[in-house]
Amino acid sequence: MATRQFLGNAPRIAQVTAWLFAGTWETSDVITVTPTGSTKVFTTTAGSTTVATLVESLKEALVALDATNWPEFAEVTWTRSGSSLVATSNTAGVPFTFTVATTETGGVPADAQTIDGVASSAGTNSTANSGPNVVNLAANWSGSAVPVNSDDVYIDGDVDLLYGLDNNTVTLTSLTIAGTFTGRIGLPERNGSGYDEYRETYLKISATTVNIGIGEGNGSGRIKLNTGSVQTTLNVHGMGSKVDAQAPHALLWIGTHNSNTVNLYRGSVGLAALPGEAATIATLRIGYDENQAGDVQVTVGVGVTLTTLVKNGGELLLLCAFTTATQKAGDTTFTGTSLNGTTLNVNDSGRWFHNATGTITTLNLSGDESVIFDASRDQRSKTITTANRYGRAQLLDPFKVLAFTNGIDLEQADLSGINLGTNINIQRAAVS
Questions:
Q1: CB under 8 Å to 331, separation ≥6 — which residues?
Q2: Full-prediction pTM beyond 0.85?
């Protein structure tokens, strides 16, 4: 086990990648060039049976692409070397990945044309990308070695970690990102050149313990972390203001182990918050540092499997079902379709805006008037199987969207603070 610190010392070197065309071609054979992982595909035909000629035509076609509509392709310089198509990064230190493929159109002999000896190739690097923002380069780490299993990793300073992000085979003992780290980790979903990013956008690395925002400092405005299927305890002590306008939060995290624990004390945090993302959280605790109501702003995404929520502060947008949730402070907006909860406790202070359809099996409300369960914002029907109300906690359902299967038990409480709408009939019975 070693301690590795990210330094960002690697020299900037432009990537050069080539694709060798060979075999027997027909003029109608189809050629496609695709940024690997993207839906953007450039398609053309060979146009010649002479290999060098068709590669030259392909190169000219790529050079002629309108940079406004094909910005990914404009980030490299396209040339030809003999029978090879060559791409060189325009910016040293910024990598690219293109897949060049060919499809047979029925000529004879069939499928005789090749690119790097096969029908589809990501090319061969004659010069590998290098730069201070590449995670998987040894030159960027203390001890001139990339982190391996059981290492402790420490990140501070202001150097961005943007490329070479897929390190999913590594499980660290700990990953610590200091509050003094003001760089960025990961890439935005939308590239600044005007296209949906096709490169990896999350730092993929597993760690038993992740500490973010430790110590002094304002923290980073972008950290995107995927800890994979390894059990993780994520502790977030602080984040800077988010720098990506389209991102919901400064910190975006994904992790799928069934026993993940997330503890939030300060910062803007999204847990599997982007469309299509999934995560599993056994226990989510939301606390605070100084400002109980506002130190934490968090979104728990649609694709999260959440067992236990303990909320002692902050602002929460909850878009998934849960087993047990206890809110003692701050505001929660629970929204979605067919979202269920086994037990919901709302007590001490704070508001729970119940904007989701589905069923809460047991609702326990307790505290003074500052405790509010509010179903007034969403007009869809929803169910509370058993409702217990203590003290003067408010229950607001002015539009009668809640169905109370077993009624409402007023435990040491009266009807003050309960709004069930107008033109209703109330029957009195003893609490069992």
A1: 293, 315, 316, 350, 351, 352, 353
A2: yes
